[in-house]
Amino acid sequence: MPFDRALRSALFASGIIIMLLGVPSAVAAQTRAYQLSYYILGSVQRPGEYPYRSGMTVLHAIAMAGGYYRASDAGLRLERDAALAAGDLKILAAKRTLLTVRRARLQSELDNAPDIRPPAEAGPALDVAGHLEEERRLMQARRKSFLDDTNRLTEQVTHLNDEIASLRATIDAQGREAQLIRRELDEVRVMVGRGLTPTARQYLLERNLAQIESKQRELETFISRARQTISRTEQNRVALANQRQAALITELQQADSDLNEVGARIETQRQLLAEAEGIAPTGAGTRSRPDEPRPAYLVLRGDGAAAQERLATEGTLLEPGDIVRVQTPGATRLTAGQ
């Protein structure tokens, strides 16, 4: 007498038939794994393979798969997407206002304007006023820093020029003194040649003249070094201005790039918002109603040619290896063998 299907399933689940038939252990393990699973597909949240438990019904299987797939879920997601897109639009609009004011500040700095020229396309007046005040403080701080650095270099040049002027005055005074010594030395040399004065006086004058000329050469060296320092300082002052201008141009280009990116993102968010707002009401209207027809179920049982399809209900008991198909209202109705 053939086994009853429920009894056969229980025996398969316990592995008794597998042991009686002498099936290899690897095949037996695969067979038990297959026999202790069922499959569900169609209008459920998470279709796929699930472990079988004794006494399971179609409704249990649907619950394991996360419940019915509902069009209202898509509608709710679209409503949420619309809300998120609207929020992102506000954030992007505020960012665009900030970037527009920042760009105006950078352009004003580049033009050495005394103050920021408020942009007409920035946005609401209150937002612009707040951003303008922040950017104005930043502009003033940066300008003060630049002017401090420039003034420090200018003061160095002025100090060096004053020092050069002082050294030049000393050299001129020593030059006049050297000229007097040379005249006296010429007279002393004549007198020494005639034997009218000792040579010691001539040597003293020559030594004094040599010291003055040596001091003049040292001062000329100091002046040359000071002029080199002035040249480097002037180059640093020019480089400082060029670096500031280059940095402002780079920041201005970055602000333009950021503005273009924000503009593109705003346009994308607007399209997403329009799409979500256009679709969400339709999705929301498909939420389940009490008078809505119930889903249909189909169970495929068996393997190969012996497989049979049958219509089922939520209370239909399942067996290991069953395949459950769920059809929600509005789709083509299921029939056995479909």
TrEMBL record:
Residue span(s) of domain AprE-like long alpha-helical hairpin: 88-270
- Which InterPro entries does this one have? HH_AprE-like, Soluble_ligand-bd
Soluble ligand binding domain location = 38-73
Pfam families given in the database record: HH_AprE (PF25994), SLBB (PF10531)
Q: What is this protein called?
A: Uncharacterized protein
